[in-house]
Design a protein that fits this description.
The protein has a domain of 245 residues: Rossmann fold, CATH 3.40.50. By secondary structure, the chain is mainly alpha-helical. It is 43% helix and 6% strand. The chain starts with a helix and ends in a 10-residue tail after the last helix. Helix 1 runs parallel beside helix 12 and helix 5 crosses helix 6. GO terms for molecular function: hydrolase activity, acting on ester bonds. Belongs to the 'GDSL' lipolytic enzyme family.
């Protein structure tokens, strides 16, 4: 099924499912996004780094189609959510995009940067925007909001925003597994706790700046990323049990941490997004969901290509909807639809209990 047809089919099914169950998607004033390449809609286009997705074949199934800086063939989860929530028609713009209009800012922007992580060392290795700098940009954004709409309205917009935080994978891949920088200082358990402390500080800062409705994503099955299988299981190409186990243990800690954090922040709703389970389900049962290729990406050989290695010279698969991964790290638009379905069904209704904006 062609990606655009799949998008319309997916939306029809999802909205129909909600009508049948008499459920409603809560209303949000805007969408604000922080994190790494899983949610970066193009901020890295405007900084000096090799970690860019603003060249073909990235974006081959996006509107137009054009490469926008998104590390996929099309839309990311925030783009699909923004459409469903009737906040954006053509995706969430990156904050660093020049000439953003007042309404762009009002309905939400993305601060994420591909290659980033909770650990500052991760961003220094990749030369991208660290999470703490994303917070600085957010503060700058708040001032712009106040300038356009006044302080009271700006506070209302931020308080009613759906905030997405998706990061962590790069920390483990760059600093622990493939480049063992942090292994000198920490064992796995200690490094997980180190990152969770950073995450906790980040969420508290968001809350102090007015954000009340926050989704924090866990880790995917890192051991099933094509690039990790290439590095450590090149012949058999099987998922790496140890790395997947590490992801699950980190996720368990995160899931326990967030309710405790929420209890410390009055009026907040902070939800854990389990992306491990839906992605693992796609990998373990691909044919149930219409996928065929689970061990390599659509770009090039699918074994190593990502970012600067996935280029116009790379051959591309004919049907991206059959692939779970677009390059050796990042999911296809089709995979992101399935993750979005989980978020809409399992998480968004829980925000209905939060005070109105």
């Amino acid at each position: 099924m062609a990606p655009k047809s799949f998008f319309l089919f997916f939306l029809a099914l999802l909205l129909c499912n909600y009508t049948i169950k008499s459920q409603t998607i809560p209303k949000f004033t805007s969408i604000l996004v922080f994190g790494d390449s899983t949610v970066d809609t193009g901020n890295n286009n405007y900084i000096f780094t090799l970690f860019k997705g603003n060249h073909p074949p990235y974006g081959k199934d996006y509107y137009n189609p054009i490469p926008t800086g998104r590390f996929s063939n099309g839309k990311l989860v925030p783009d699909i959510l923004a459409f469903l929530l009737k906040l954006k028609k053509y995706g969430v713009p990156p904050y660093l995009q020049p000439n953003l209009m007042a309404n762009d800012l009002k309905t939400g922007v993305c601060f994420a940067s591909a290659g980033s992580g909770y650990d500052d060392l991760t961003s220094s290795i990749s030369g991208v925007i660290p999470m703490r700098k994303q917070l600085e940009y957010f503060k700058e954004y708040l001032e712009k909001l106040k300038g356009y709409f006044g302080e009271k309205e700006a506070e209302k917009i931020v308080k009613g925003a759906l905030v997405i935080v998706s990061s962590g994978s790069n920390d483990f891949i760059f600093n622990f597994y493939d480049i063992p920088t942090r292994r000198v200082e920490f064992n796995m358990n200690e490094y997980q706790d180190f990152l969770l402390d950073k995450l906790q500080f980040f969420v508290k800062e968001l809350y102090e700046l007015g954000c009340h409705k926050i989704i924090v994503s866990g880790l995917p099955p890192i051991g099933c990323l094509p690039i990790q299988m290439t590095a450590k299981s090149p012949l058999h190409r099987i998922c790496l049990e140890k790395e997947n186990s590490d992801s699950q243990f980190y996720n368990q800690k995160l899931e326990k941490l967030l309710p405790n954090l929420q209890s410390q922040l009055p009026g907040s709703k902070i939800l854990y997004a389990d992306i491990y389970t839906p992605i693992a389900d796609l990998i373990n049962n691909p044919q149930e969901y219409g996928f065929e290729e689970i061990k390599k990406g659509c770009c090039g050989t699918g074994l190593l290509e990502a970012g600067p290695l996935c280029t116009t010279k790379s051959p591309v698969c004919t049907d991206t909807s059959l692939y779970i991964f677009f390059d050796s790290i990042h999911p296809t638009e089709s995979t992101y639809y399935h993750i979005t379905e989980y978020l809409v069904k399992e998480l968004l209704p829980k925000f209905s209990t939060v005070g109105s904006f």
